[in-house]
Amino acid sequence: MTAEQALGRALRRPRYEIIPMRGALEAARALPAHAVVTVTCSPTRGIDATVELAAQVAALGHVAVPHLAARRFASRSHLETGMSRLTEAGVRDVFVVGGDGDHVAGPFDHGCRLIEALAEIAPGLRSVGVPCYPEGHALIAAETLDEALDAKCFLAGHMVTQLCFDAARIRDWLQGVRGRGVDLPMHVGIPGVIERRRLLGIALRIGLGDSTRFLRGNKRMWGRLTGPSQFTPDALLDDLAPLLAAPELNVAGLHINTFNQVGSTEAWRRKRLSALASTAGDVDASGSPSSAAPDGRA
Fold first, then answer.
1. DSSP for 162-196?
2. Which of 37, 47, 82, 88 could form a Cys-Cys staple with 62, CB 3.0–4.6 A?
3. SS3 254
4. Is residue 52 part of a domain?
5. In a domain, 150, yes or no
6. Is the pTM higher than 0.85?
7. Which reaction does it catalyse (predicted)?
């Protein structure tokens, strides 16, 4: 498979991420039918808002994947109540994060503890995803991140990268984790279409130091990010395409952070698919995602 063909396949069935805030359900309605839609956990709105929005997204016919932040659950009973609501709504897939911040609301101080509890509380779950950090984490030591991912690879079904604008950094990091035996399928986190300066603010806030330094040294990408109007991830995708086509890296697909800007992101995705179809004969330009498991494998 060529890089263009791999990119076309990934764009036909990406994962979409939305934020639980006003207008989020309307954003989900604008997505293609039966899309995989992940729902983040807002530090201000709390885990219950994530659970409720995920249930509503599932009712639209999407594959809803709530982000369950371990530190946000006040008790095991709180987790059981949330999982009961999700099960009733037909949600069978979750994404487990630790939850930033020093405050731990209950018994789950990190993601592994929550995943272990889920195995007992919700044994019928189809897929558990976990985050990964090619550029590290602003608040967590690299050694701690490595140890956590090594432990989670026996408990989870796939991993998703934090936003990173440096495809070479993602490749080098992924080769390293593959070399030490972490074989989870990986989805690459990319931004959707968003106002450029807002995206730069997000990148700086979540600690993408190396990525922003890379951008400053890459005039093409830096200009795209700091100029007027909106950012589109075309240049980043061009750099990522060879990774998508490399079977030994096991890159399952793309995870689009929409920031709830679904309309503009979907218009861009379909346009990019159409452009790929004109250069790669077997790329489907319909833009409709095929039926796939939440880990991205057909």
1. PP-S-HHHHHHHHHHHHHTT----EEEEEE-SEEH
2. 37
3. strand
4. yes
5. yes
6. yes
7. (6S)-5-methyl-5,6,7,8-tetrahydrofolate + NAD(+) = (6R)-5,10-methylene-5,6,7,8-tetrahydrofolate + NADH + H(+)
Phi-psi region of 245 (alpha: psi -120 to 50; beta: other; left: phi over 0): alpha
pLDDT tens per residue across span 51-103: 999 999 999 999 999 999 999 999 999 999 999 999 999 999 999 999 877 78
The SS3 assignment for 33 reads coil
Q: How far is residue 95 from each of residues 2, 100, 138, 188, 243, measured CA to CA in Å?
A: 30, 15, 20, 15, 23
Indicate left, alpha or beta for 99 from its phi (over 0: left) and psi (-120 to 50: alpha).
left
Domain of 71, CATH number, reads 3.20.20.220
User: For the chain, what is the domain count?
Assistant: 1
In a domain, 290, yes or no: no
Sign of the dihedral through C-alpha 115, 184, 191, 264: negative
What radius of gyration, in Å, describes the C-alpha atoms of the chain?
18
Task: Please check whether residue 253 is in contact with residue 11, taking contact to mean a CB–CB distance below 8 angstroms.
Answer: no
Domain of residue 134 covers 3-277
